[in-house]
Amino acid sequence: MLYYSTNKQSPEASLAEVVTRGLAPDRGLYMPRRIDRLSDSFFAGIDRLSFHEIACRVAEAFFGEDIPREELESIVCDTLSFDTPVVKVRDGIWSLELFHGPTAAFKDVGARFMARMLAHFIGRSGHKEKVTVLVATSGDTGSAVANGFLGVEGIDVVVLYPKGKVSEIQEKQFATLGRNITALEVDGTFDDCQRLVKSAFLDEELTRHLTLTSANSINVARFLPQSFYYFHAYAQMKRAGFGNDVAVCVPSGNFGNITAGLFAKRMGLPVKRFIAANNRNDIFLQYLRTGVYTPRPSVATVANAMDVGDPSNFARVLDLYGGDWQAICSEISGFRYDDDQIRDGITRVYKDYGYVLDPHGACGYLALEEGLLPGETGLFLETAHPAKFRDTVEAAIGRSVEIPEQLRRFMDGKKLSLGMTSRFEDFKAYLLSR
Ligand SMILES: *Cc1c(COP(=O)(O)O)cnc(C)c1O
């Protein structure tokens, strides 16, 4: 299958090219040329299939032409080493729990899949040198990517993070791993980290000596596999007796997760409609209201993984609907919540139903509470484990949150970060000396 750029200025590219490149040369996002509809019989029998069976079928539709079936199945099954269960919170509102992976957030799915797909293409092209993945992180992306790539043959990962600006639990998840993962503690801000990574990709001397790539969330191999759990969620809802009146609500920042859901719907998944839940960074909601897209600097909130002022996957949403604002509004609606509403939502849902939300999932829950229509059942994506946002959640529910086993494991690890200044010359010298 070939992929085109949303900016339409770059030539179409193969899967191997788009996975190693990330962004298209014209700075657009890659889109698959076709989105195949899956058969009616697949949907009729989906509630009798396992997560692995469902995901393999979906993966086949996107990647089947480019990766031999057995190899693809092993990438999918290796990626999905954990379940994504749906859990009833109260009558009419269910939670799709995406936090049972190694770093307790939904990004595990995309990061693990991308690592394995990249390793596949590197292995086939007979690459002699290692590929170095550079990733700048303000917290969650670094942990998902580092753990996704941990121990993957032929790939080294360098995570750059701002000193003193990520939580201890976040830092532990990428700075204690060792092996093929190096964490650089940069004396600067997240923007400095991002600048260092961007400069490295543009530096001719570096790119002559090293094969550099990014594991950014705009990568096709990171966002498309997220569609797997929408199908699996539908299968579970069907098994629980719910038909085709399910509205799916996605707490959104860069809009990669919801875009994967929109792809699933294009493939025939009988989801009724989507709701995008924003925090105060409500650029998308304003677009829905006015038809005008106006990016603006992000503001900090308690749901910080959604603090995005110019969602990169908006270009994919637009492209999917041919730029038709009304068509977008007919399938997606939006809501927004400020920090007080988020905290209050966490308190209330715990008190009334005993369910502990994280600040991102709380936005999703609140949007269903506000936006569900009569006869609809709501399913929101619980995108991270509440223990990852412990301070906010514990203050809201008035008790301590249990830290799940997979996160506790990191807490005992020894921090192995190397110090780094925010000067590009220093970062470049380090990369060349490795
Ligand atoms: C990344 C992230 C989001 C936002 O997902 P997008 O795909 O960027 O819209 C929401 N919640 C959590 C916990 C995240 O880590």
Query: Quick check: average pLDDT?
Result: 94
Low-confidence stretches: none
Main-sheet strand order equals: 3-4-12-9-10-11
Bound molecules: pyridoxal-5'-phosphate
The CATH architecture of the domain at 82-104 and 223-402 would be 3-Layer(aba) Sandwich
The major pleated sheet works out as:
6 strands, mixed
Give helix % range. 40-55%
Quaternary structure classification: single chain
How large is the count of helical segments? 20
Would you mind describing this structure in some detail?
The chain has helices spanning 15-21, 40-44, 51-63, 69-79, 107-124, 140-149, 168-175, 190-202, 204-209, 220-223, 227-239, 256-266, 283-290, 314-320, 325-331, 339-353, 359-371, 390-397, 405-411, 424-433; strands at residues 3-5, 30-32, 86-90, 93-97, 131-136, 155-162, 181-186, 211-214, 246-251, 273-278, 332-336, 377-382, 418-420. It has 434 residues and is of the alpha/beta class. It has a domain at 82-104 and 223-402: 3-Layer(aba) Sandwich (Rossmann fold). A 6-stranded mixed sheet has the order 3-4-12-9-10-11, sandwiched between helices. Strands 8-5-6-7-13 form a 5-stranded parallel sheet, sandwiched between helices. A two-stranded antiparallel ribbon has the order 1-2. Helix 12 links the parallel strand 9 (246-251) and strand 10. It starts with a strand and ends with a helix.
